[in-house]
Amino acid sequence: MAGVLVYSDSSDSALELVTLGSKLGREVSVVVLGSEDLSDQTKKVSVNGVSTVYQISSDALSNLLAGPTVDALESVYSRVSPDYMFFSSTKKGKELAPRLAARLKIGCITDAMKPELNENGITAERLVLGGNAIATVASRGPAVATIPLRAFERASGNASPNVIKIEDFQPRPTRTIVLGRKEKQKGQVNIKDAEIIVSAGRGFKKKEDLAILEELAKVLNAVVGASRPLTSDLGWLPEDRQVGLSGTTVKPKLYIAVGISGQIQHLTGMRESKLVVAINTDKNAPIFQECDYGIVGDLYAIIPELTKDLKLQLGR
Amino acid sequence: MNFDLSDEQKLILEVTDEACKKIRPVENRCYLERRFNDQVLPVFKEAHLLGLPISRKYGEGQGADALTYALVLERVGREGTGIRTFFSGHVSLGQLTLQKWGSEEQKQRYLPRTTNGEMVMAFGLTEPTAGSDPSAMKSSFVERNGIYYLDGQKAWISNGSIADLIVVFAYPKGKSEGMCAFLVERNFEGFSSEPIKNKLGLPSSDTGLLYFSNCRIPKENLLGPVGKGLSVAYSALMSGRLSVAAGCVGVAQDCLDEALVYARERVQHKKKIGKHQLVQREIAKISIDLEASRMLTYKAAVMKVKSDESPENQDLRSEADWSIAEAKYHAANVSFRAADRALQVFGANGFSFENRPARHLVDTRACRIYEGTDQILEQKIAIKLLGAEFESYS
Amino acid sequence: MTQQPGTKEKKNPLEIIVCFKHVIDETELRIDRANNKINFEGAKTKISDDDKNAIEEAVRIKEKNGGIITVVCVGPADAKKSTKEALAMGCDRARLIVDPSFQDGDALSTAYILSQVVKKIGKFDLILTSTGTTDSYTGIVGPALAEYLDLPQLTYASKITISGNKLTVDRALDDGIETVECEIPALVTVSREINQPRFPTLIQIMSAGKKELLEWNAQTLGINPSVVGKADSKVEVKSLSVPKSARKKVIFEGKPEDAAKQLAEALLKEGAVK
Ligand SMILES: Cc1cc2nc3c(=O)[nH]c(=O)nc-3n(C[C@H](O)[C@H](O)[C@H](O)COP(=O)(O)OP(=O)(O)OC[C@H]3O[C@@H](n4cnc5c(N)ncnc54)[C@H](O)[C@@H]3O)c2cc1C
Ligand SMILES: Cc1cc2nc3c(=O)[nH]c(=O)nc-3n(C[C@H](O)[C@H](O)[C@H](O)COP(=O)(O)OP(=O)(O)OC[C@H]3O[C@@H](n4cnc5c(N)ncnc54)[C@H](O)[C@@H]3O)c2cc1C
Ligand SMILES: Cc1cc2nc3c(=O)[nH]c(=O)nc-3n(C[C@H](O)[C@H](O)[C@H](O)COP(=O)(O)OP(=O)(O)OC[C@H]3O[C@@H](n4cnc5c(N)ncnc54)[C@H](O)[C@@H]3O)c2cc1C
Q1: Going by C-beta distance under 8 Å and a sequence separation of 6 or more, which residues neighbour residue A101?
Q2: How far apart are CA B148 and CA B214, in angstroms?
Q3: Are B316 and B15 in contact (CB under 8 A)?
Q4: Which of A286, B122, B139, B221 has a CB 3.0–4.6 Å from the CB of B166, allowing a cystine?
Q5: Which residue of C has its CA nearest to A94?
Q6: Which domain holds residue B328?
């Protein structure tokens, strides 16, 4: 029984993939790539369940561009011949997995939820048709898959896997160069890992009005998320706050949707929240079909009241 | 007649559909807050639909035939009669009338700016004392030194208080014949307007009162030949009525769609109400009415296409006029009944403006009044069959 | 791009290929939650949303740099309507690829077919795709096509500039924008934020019918049906189902201050706020 190979450009998400590999009862090998000393990264992924860490360090991998990265992964793959290779469903993961699969002539499943083994391949669920449907797909034989972030806990523990340095890596000539990089100004906000999210939608009439929601967020120690119109269309909030199909998938303990109608593309991104609250003037808004608690009413009247009440109750 | 849609018609309907989807949430909000929806113009401008049936010679004119234009208005009608009425005033009654009767110079001067939405048009015929009988109108003009001075008032004018350019009708002072049509710009001296309040429906769409007090109209803004005002008005009503018919077919379609959604979801007596046969009857009746109306309207549109292709042929014109009157009458009544039935399917929830059947019910009611009341059209249709000598009121 | 001797000054027009998928309009599907069914009957179809951004970008590049755009779709015969729409948006010619043996393949199969189409078209400088379709949304086709054609892949483009043989792309990544450069030919997948696709006018729609639209199939492409489609797929779709909701749906109406109070109490009781 061949094992599982995992790769992610972030060690944290690689650990989630390790958990998946162990769950499937397979021996897990991790690939770490870079242009410098890789011992830090290697240490981070040396956790229970990992049998081998493969390292490739090469100048060609300084920016982890798709071309040389796929070359590197191919060289590890051909050495290990695993049955399955897992990536995280990050933008990087999703551009590498298909190219590698095409090169290796094996199946590719992206955004694979609930991955499981079947007789001769891997079965998973995928959200399709804009979140309206779940497709169950299966590979015939070995496959590459990308796995949504935070679908699995991070593997932990201190272990001492074999570390194999691949020295003879020969990338193809590089054709793409990086001219520059502009980091996203994130502030401290990270909606992916937030425990409480209050999200704003088109029910807000202007950007300044978001202040009342910020106020509520402060009382709840929550972060402010948004529906797509407020991020990519109106630019009131940065795109990393967008919840939904084409934004971030979140699963906080509490999700409060304010002035959000609850179109399927939005629901897809917050469906796994533990508790969902909706505030909307339109009692027929689809969000009310997807909430635990809802208030039919004007957010401009309700949010300040709610903030006041919670402030009092929570003693803030 | 073959009503199979061409790929091109399907595509322009998709463009229309996208624009309609954009406007829907805005219209929801405006309707409930009972305020004018000022996004209709920009949204449909972006979709290049503001001059759809106007000749390509003029700005954004797209040269659509009457059937294609009717198909688009049917789709627009699903969003509500208010939005469709904007098109009727701006395009069907306004621009098409200007295109038919205007001089080349007038068309060059105005149509590029109306087709691209820079100027909104309206059509001012009705007055407080002259509705079904336009010949009773009191507005009058005098000519001095090559300038017309207009006095009077117009009421119930769609787009009236937002329009930049209005087709206005008046008699020479002291006469009740020789009616003339004019193109009045909103910034002409002596013109003013205000929106009508407390309407039964159409809260998000403008219906205005117009006032002319010694309003100064330059000579080059006379529309059509001197004394031919009534012909201008009647020709406009053909396009206008067809637009109403098409919009009403859309209304009935939306009532059907809404009723279907509701009947599939709502449970009473442990059953989806769609399983109750009396509810099924409401749905069947909407559907039968709708299909009949749609066929009448498409037929009327095809007749209009034919008549437009041979403008000199009076027989074709008269046939088209009659078909359009039938289609408009039928569709206006069908849409009203469909709204009533959909409302019934919704029960109490139908009795709220948060759901479209209630809005359709009050909004589409206007369609049995404007551009020829039910009674006027019934007589028009009958007289065509009986013969002109049976006309009761001319 | 090969430069012909003696024509050094005269630039060849940029040859752009843009790929789109003809999909079911997911916003108009009827979902029967009770019976866990999706009703596809009479469903409307469209150009996959973000593919319109790819088409729009091709047209903008052409408007700026000059060039010829070939639009390609592998799909059912009724994709002709969408193909005309792409032409109406400003593409110059179309290749519609229809063959029963191409149906129901996995994404790699589709990418392979597209690679053969590109080879038959011959000359090209730039291939544009989106990063994912609105129906099956795998995001596989772009990178896989780049692999089959041995092209550099510049993914998630939020800005594209071409100057001479140099292609510069801003990539909207998870943690920021990365600007990369390479020589054409290359494959770029565009992000939705790159532009706002235009509505074609009726005039453009009507004139699209006069542009070159060729239908190709397995035979014209010289593809052996046993290496594509369902026959050779390494991933297959087993079933479709409808996501379920099991929420409490407790709704408060009434005065804002009362409703807010009730909600605050409920949240405290749930232990959702601390
Ligand atoms: C391929 C694709 C991907 C997409 N990806 C995403 C995505 O990732 N995330 C996303 O969010 N969307 C996404 N969308 C867009 C999505 O379809 C919807 O358009 C969007 O979610 C709507 O945002 P909204 O609910 O804020 O706005 P609307 O649908 O306009 O809803 C506004 C709501 O506010 C309510 N409201 C108005 N005034 C008030 C008030 N005073 N008080 C309370 N309520 C009020 C209204 O009743 C309404 O329900 C995507 C679409 C497509 C086609
Ligand atoms: C929302 C709205 C928008 C409008 N937009 C415009 C516009 O853009 N431009 C414009 O010029 N006008 C417009 N109108 C006015 C509309 O065209 C008139 O209301 C219509 O022609 C009827 O005239 P009236 O209201 O004066 O009714 P009347 O003519 O006074 O009729 C009252 C009643 O008497 C009946 N009746 C009248 N004469 C006869 C007869 N001979 N035989 C039998 N019954 C008869 C009518 O059918 C009706 O039932 C609009 C009206 C509404 C409600
Ligand atoms: C429910 C469902 C689930 C599926 N899951 C998988 C899966 O997990 N793995 C897998 O390998 N296959 C899967 N498939 C098959 C796959 O959807 C098809 O092969 C499809 O042709 C390409 O995939 P896509 O729509 O995801 O395209 P994407 O890879 O998301 O498309 C990206 C871009 O490539 C271009 N493109 C894509 N398709 C075409 C086309 N037909 N013609 C022209 N250009 C095109 C467009 O520019 C498009 O925007 C699935 C199919 C279904 C119906």
Answers
A1: A107, A108, A143, A144, C108, C140, C144
A2: 9
A3: no
A4: B122
A5: C139
A6: 229-390
Identify any residues that bridge with B334 across adjacent strands, giving them in sequence order.
none
| 3-state secondary structure string across B113-131 | HHHCCCCCEEEECCECCEC
- Measured in angstroms, the CA of A162 and the nearest CA of chain C are apart by 31
CATH code of the domain in which B369 resides? 1.20.140.10
Positions of B annotated as catalytic residues are 371
Q: B1 lies in a domain?
A: no
Q: CB–CB of A203/A281 below 8 Å?
A: yes
Ligand 3 pocket at CB < 6 A:
A 108-109, 126, 128, 135, 137; C 19-21, 48, 50-51, 54, 72-75, 105-108, 110, 114, 129-130, 132-133, 135-142, 235, 237
**Which tokens in the block code for residue A261?**
């109608």
Please report, for chain C, the start and end positions of each structural domain, with discontinuous segments joined by +. Answer: 15-232, 244-274
pTM summary value: 0.84
Q: In terms of Cα–Cα distance, which of C115, C108, C170, C117 is closest to C138?
A: C108
Residues of B with CB under 8 A from a CB of C: 7-8, 10-12, 14-15, 18-19, 21, 46-48, 52, 56, 60, 62-64, 68
Cβ–Cβ gap B354/A283 under 8 Å: yes
Measured in Å, residue A75 CA sits from the centre of ligand 3 at 27
Residue contact B28–A202, C-beta within 8 A? no
Q: Is B42 found in the same domain as B110? A: yes
CATH code, A196-314: 3.40.50.1220
Contact A202/B at CB under 8 A: yes
Question: Mean pLDDT, 10 residues at a time, over chain B (394 residues)?
Answer: 90 95 90 94 97 97 97 98 98 98 98 98 97 94 96 98 98 95 98 97 98 97 96 95 98 97 91 95 98 98 96 95 98 98 96 95 98 96 94 74
Contact A65 C180 (CB under 8 A): yes
Q: Where in chain A is the domain with CATH 3.40.50.620?
A: 4-165
Last residue of a domain, one of B223, B238, B264: B223
Q: In terms of CATH, what superfamily is C15-232?
A: HUPs (3.40.50.620)
Residues in A closer than 8 angstroms to C168, CB to CB, are 179
Smallest Cβ–Cβ distance between B10 and the set C81, C200, C208 belongs to: C81
CATH dotted code for A4-165: 3.40.50.620
Q: How many domains does one find in chain B?
A: 3
Q: Using CB atoms and an 8 Å cut-off, which of residues 167-186 of chain C contact chain A?
A: 168, 172-183, 186
- CB-CB neighbors (< 8 A) of C106 in chain A: 107-108
Rounded Cα–Cα distance for residues A23 and A21 (Å):
5
Higher pLDDT residue, C274 or C148? C148
- In sequence order, the 6+-apart residues with CB closer than 8 A to the CB of C190 are C50, C53, C54, C57, C128, C129, C130, C131, C156, C157, C160
C180: amino acid identity, one letter: V
Looking at all shown ligands, the one closest to residue C136's CA atom is 3
Q: Hey, which bits of chain A come out as E strands?
A: 4-7, 28-34, 50-57, 84-88, 107-109, 113-117, 122-128, 133-139, 143-147, 162-165, 177-183, 196-200, 223-226, 254-258, 275-280, 293-296
ipTM value for the complex? 0.88
